[in-house]
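Changelog-adjacent note: as of this version, every example in the card shows the full chain rather than a window. The one below runs 312 residues end to end.
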Amino acid sequence: METFPVIDLSKLSGEERKPTMEMIQDACENWGFFELVNHGISHELMDTVERLTKEHYKKCMEQRFKEMVASNGLEAVQSEINDLDWESTFFLRHLPVSNMAEIPDLDEEYRKTMKEFAVELEKLAEQFLEVLCENLGLEKGYLKKAFYGSKGPTFGTKVSNYPPCPKPDLIKGLRAHTDAGGIILLFQDDKVSGLQLLKDGQWFDVPPMKHSIVINIGDQLEVITNGKYKSVMHRVIAQTDGTRMSLASFYNPGSDAVIYPAPALVEKEAEKSQVYPKFVFEDYMKLYAGLKFQAKEPRFEAMKAMGPIATA
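Full-length structure tokens:
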């Protein structure tokens, strides 16, 4: 059985840089998912984020979730549910403009801590894009620039809790999908598992590890790398015991960024048969909204069918 890749980021600045870069390359090409340890975000900050997220769920979200379960009759389902996820969630936007002030019932400490955490995650995402540029043989800063658009990248965090589920065989915590965006940084519960990814036709667990950050590749990086790195189907299996916390932060292109394969990664001869389309990120997101839980390939085909777009 293959083991899920865990990468010690501190080794990038030492003698083990080369093998660590190779591990990252292998994880990007063959898994689309990997776990980072020693990533530079303080454990104390992560512990505070976890404590406040769990407190906020208990205080503000748990009762609402129970009411949703009751109103949909989910406790007593007899057949598989395909149009609903067993999750309680809200979304914080950090860039280009924060929405944190508008989210009701976030107390001041939580707001402040999440702002601090977002700054650290943004730094880690940008550091990682540089590592990917180096591994791909792209010029320094290429990926950050590709994501930039006119107002910089979009960046936000989906805060989710997956409460205990009486029928995990019939209701998914989160149905299988690939992520639409760029690079995803996940801070997940280190006690309650549930996240799985699909590799070579098999579902693999993404192991819960204290203070780790899980990274996965989104659809936009697949396009920019012309398929060298691929976004991967993943899902959350609901558990009968324990509430699983998940903070997934999406470092995505700006809404008006034009996404297309990096010319350096497209063979000159194959220019005409370029596998991936060229499109505006916002157009892709509009399409994705309705097709999230379906295969990604038809989405790419649909973007191709929209015809060429003009770029300044």
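Structural remarks: The helical segments are 17-30, 43-71, 108-136, 142-148, 219-224, 281-291, 297-305.
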